[in-house]
């Protein structure tokens, strides 16, 4: 799995940079997007092996992106992981109902984050 491409969609530059650094240090090829429009551009340019999607984004939210990707036959097979600080009861079920294949909470634990992403990738998102 060396060099697996991961797209991170998050509007917080600090979250993006931390996640990118941790994943790149573990051998991932990381691309980033600050909003849904940028995410669509990145998805069209390079099909990643996995997408980490923040739910709360400016303009169009992350779940709208998830639904759109799952509706696109060329992209539907990409595992989409909710990558969010939401931790309320029932949120994970809501994310999965929208099409998310998994859930990773923020803030990240830098010691285990890359391993968690690899686990999601190996399981096809779960």
Task: Give the gist of this structure.
By secondary structure, this protein is α/β, with parallel strands linked by helices.
Written account of the structure:
It is a single chain. With 126 residues, the chain is α/β, with parallel strands linked by helices. The protein has one domain (5-122): Rossmann fold. Helix content is 40%, strand content 18%. The chain contains five helices and five strands. It has helices at residues 13-25, 36-45, 62-71, 91-98, 113-122; strands at 5-9, 29-33, 50-53, 80-84, 102-105. It has a five-stranded parallel β-sheet with strand order 2-1-3-4-5, sandwiched between helices. Strand 1 (5-9), helix 1 and strand 2 (29-33) form a beta-alpha-beta unit. The radius of gyration is 13 Å and the shape is globular. The model has no long low-confidence stretch (mean pLDDT 92).
């Amino acid at each position: 799995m060396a060099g697996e491409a991961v797209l991170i969609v998050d509007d917080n530059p600090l979250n993006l940079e931390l996640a990118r650094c941790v994943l790149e240090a573990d051998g991932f090829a990381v691309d980033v997007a600050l909003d849904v429009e940028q995410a669509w551009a990145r998805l069209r340019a390079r099909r990643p092996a996995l997408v980490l999607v923040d739910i709360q984004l400016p303009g169009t939210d992350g779940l709208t992106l998830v639904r759109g990707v799952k509706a696109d036959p060329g992209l539907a097979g990409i595992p989409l992981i909710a990558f969010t600080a939401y931790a309320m009861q029932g949120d994970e079920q809501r994310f999965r109902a929208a099409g998310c294949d998994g859930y990773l909470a923020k803030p990240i634990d830098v010691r285990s984050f890359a391993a968690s992403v690899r686990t999601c990738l190996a399981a096809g998102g779960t």
